């Protein structure tokens, strides 16, 4: 099957499908018994990301179990700073850690040859997935956005309000801008290489965009994303790009207009009716069911599914959650969601 005939790609290219394509952020994860078994065998999260045998297997698991319309590469946003030479590790039960960059320091040097050598296992995973996925299932590549990557690189971990990055932004704006701009080049290159390997669409995760004040949003979220879009389009003009500046409310519309992304993923804090009026005329909308419904299920979940589809289903639309599925999710609720959407 050609990529353009797949439901996800049709939606991202502005087509309205009779039934919306559906996939879930973090659909490969700890809520699945089979994922936990592979992760234990892998012996560490980075081993899971960099071993193509493990990464292919966990990426395919939710496709085998649920038959989602799209599969997203299993990896992590922090492989980019890792490939740039930063020390990255995952603390059990505490999440990712890095040796932080001092405020005012120069950005890590982006050397494409060493960068691609480090990430070769990821590119191999993408290539193998393209061969092993069902013919109707689209393959999504992804990367973290420069602002979100910079928050981890400045603080050494994810923290509320991303204070260290914001402190750097104000106390040494030139060096912080240099970091953001360097990351845009690295991320753009990384996404191009994923598409070279077989990804049919890509998503840019700006998970901490909500920490930016409106007057900083353009410089540190919009402009670097626009640059990434330019890099990807120069190499692969027909590959759809999804942006996800999580938690930015009414700025979603401005983001789509300014960056040129094909689609935007919305968090659960956005009204689907507002999105239908203000965002969907600009591009494809993806989202935005409350992830808690994957734990609690029931009538409340069904009502919210109906509300989202009633508001957004008459235009280009991809059904997803407002953020990633959590380890506590009940697989029966995932099955119920798919049955509700697909009938």
Summarize the structure.
By secondary structure, this protein is an alpha/beta fold. It has helices at 7-12, 33-42, 45-50, 52-66, 79-83, 112-132, 146-155, 163-171, 173-197, 214-235, 251-259, 272-278, 293-296, 298-312, 331-342, and strands at residues 70-72, 88-91, 95-98, 138-144, 201-206, 241-245, 263-265, 284-289, 317-321.
Any overview of this molecule?
The chain is an alpha/beta fold and about 350 residues long. The protein has one domain (about 30-285): TIM Barrel (Alpha-Beta Barrel), CATH 3.20.20. Helix content is about 50%, strand content about 15%. It has 15 helices and 9 strands. It has helices spanning about 5-10, 35-40, 45-50, 50-65, 80-85, 110-130, 145-155, 165-170, 175-195, 215-235, 250-260, 270-280, 295, 300-310, 330-340; strands at about 70, 90, 95-100, 140-145, 200-205, 240-245, 265, 285-290, 315-320. The strands form 2 sheets. It has a 7-stranded parallel sheet. Strands 2-3 form a two-stranded antiparallel ribbon. Strand 7 (about 265), helix 12 and strand 8 (about 285-290) form a beta-alpha-beta unit. Helix 6 (about 110-130) runs parallel beside helix 9 (about 175-195). The protein is globular. It starts with 6 loop residues before the first helix and ends with a helix. The model has no long low-confidence stretch (mean pLDDT about 95).
